[in-house]
Amino acid sequence: MIKLEKINMIFGEGTPDRNHVLRDVDLQINKGDFITIIGSNGAGKTTLFNVVSGNKRPSSGKVIVNNKDVTNHPEYKRAKYIGRIFQDPLLGTAGNMSISDNMLVAGNKGFKGLKISLNRKKREYFREQLKYLDIELENRMSDNVGMLSGGQRQALTLLMMSLSRPELVLLDEHTAALDPRNASKVMELTDKFIDEYGFTVMMITHNMQHAIDNGNRLLMMDEGRIILDISGEEKNSMTVESLIKKFHDIRNKDFATDKTLLS
Amino acid sequence: MIEGIIVEGLIYGIMALGVFLSFRVLDFPDLSVDGTFPLGAAVMAICLTGGMNMGLALLVSFTAGFIAGGITAVIHNKLGVPSLLAGILTMTMLWSINIRVLGSRANLPLLRTETILTSIRTLGEATIGETAALLIFFVIVVLIIKLLLDLFFHTDLGLTMGAMGDNEQMIISQGVNPEMVKIIGVGLSNGLVAISGAFAAQYQGFADVNLGQGIVVSGLAMVMLGEFLFSSNRIGLLTLRVILGAILYKAIMFFGRYYGYYINLTPNDLKLLTGLLIILSLILTKYRSKSLKFRRPAND
Asked: Which parts pass through the membrane (chain B) (predicted)?
């Protein structure tokens, strides 16, 4: 469905700060995949998301969606079929507007006209949807989103994203900024939504256990490369220990070249 | 006296609504207002002296302001210039354009020209009196503009505009091109400012290229004064308090002008007074938001 071909991303080309963040990344995302992505800081996970979502244009390589080259399409155009949730709960919603207004803006993607579409029927539909979250937001629909907690805001963002049924969902450590209780609540809701709507998902996480427990496919990134891509039985049999061992095995190979270079 | 203050407040209140739209709703500090206010005045004056239909002339003024505002947004979007600089560019260029619009002169008197206000005045003379007629006329005009604006903010586009001012990433995530929203928003804002300029020219009896000097600052002062009256998140009340803030501002300026001599204040000091008002508002807002943070209930 979505294909990345030989993606390279270089920041600060021609300056002393030149940073090669993504190196020849090839990736095929199939419909229905739930891919978890782990990797240390600076491995290129978020940059990968930026390239997929259109936030950044790759230095070279192609992004192909449904056999169409969308590498040069701006982010807002791709947002019609890609939903993204950020680590920062403030990025997904507008704090100075009410919950129902926020949901309305999220309801139908693309340019908005001079229609007044927030009517009673729509409000009722939003209330139903909010009940689904089970955090009692349905009674606070005219409250400003700025009054909600981070966990509530992230849950609302999740709901708003799913209203438009995107073809691909990008979750960028979307529970990392929350306290443990809210994080597990939001993760629980995430699973619920994915099950319900059969979303295709890519999820970055720092939590190796999350990466193993969730999804059908696991990617490990390091220094701009996808160094591990496992799915099915191989992924299910993984434990945190075996994952760390695998990481070391692969890194050791890298280190070997460094050692020979140094000696 | 009180009618005069309210009428002036209402005329400049339209401009304050424009400033509210760009500064508060869009979070796009736009200085082109200093150019689009006299632009509206100049276009209105030249259309009226040319004998154009009055309603049509008002529409042409609005359109001129809308285009000028749109240009500011385009400069900001396409060249990646901060909105402040884009506004200053438009404002500076408009000074020359306004002189051209007025027919290569800096001032165009409207004393012998029939304007919307002269017909209201003659209508009033025969019935309820000149000032009362003007007051009623402007209350109606500003009410219509306010209600239309409220209605606009309830449309999908209006809500999107509000969301963009708060969180541009959210709008992008919803598949909306933020550049387009900015062009429409800043255009609308300056269209309102131009209408305000058009009425100001008719009220004062002339159009002048320097009519707009420092107007954006007074507009900002009106918006901020309004914010002290009451707080709300309902758009109808937000626009209402902008208009009330404009009247309040004009009242303060009136008292500054008429009673200021007790403390050696001259009309030349009014700009200083405006600036100090804004600084005072900023200080009070800072203090208030601090105490608000303290009181906010810890909900989950």
From this structure: 5-23, 43-67, 79-97, 132-153, 211-230, 237-258, 270-287
Coil, strand or helix at A15: coil
Task: Please state the rounded mean pLDDT for residues A234-253.
Answer: 79
B290: confidence class by pLDDT, cuts 50, 70, 90: low
Three-state DSSP at B107 gives: strand
Residues of B within 8 A of A98 (CB-CB) are 233
* CATH number of the domain bearing residue A224: 3.40.50.300
Burial, B279: exposed, middle or buried (Cβ in 10 Å; 0-12, 13-18, 19+)?
A: exposed
| Contact at CB, B174 and A115, closer than 8 angstroms | no
Instruction: Please give the tally of structural domains in chain A.
Output: 1
Q: How far apart are CA A124 and CA A130, in angstroms?
A: 10
Domain of A6 in residue numbering reads as: 2-92+165-262
Q: Measured between alpha carbons, how far is A136 from A146 in angstroms, rounded to an integer?
A: 16
Tell me the pLDDT tens digit for each residue of B213-268. 889 999 999 999 999 888 887 889 999 999 999 999 999 988 888 887 888 888 78
Tell whether A40 is covered by a domain: yes
Domain that holds residue B152: 2-208
Burial grade of B221 (CB within 10 A; 0-12, 13-18, 19 or more): buried
Contact A96 B159 (CB under 8 A): no
Going by C-alpha positions, the residue among A48, A66, A83 that lies closest to residue A2 is A66
Residue A262 pLDDT greater than 60, yes or no: no
Q: How many domains, in total, are found in chain B?
A: 1
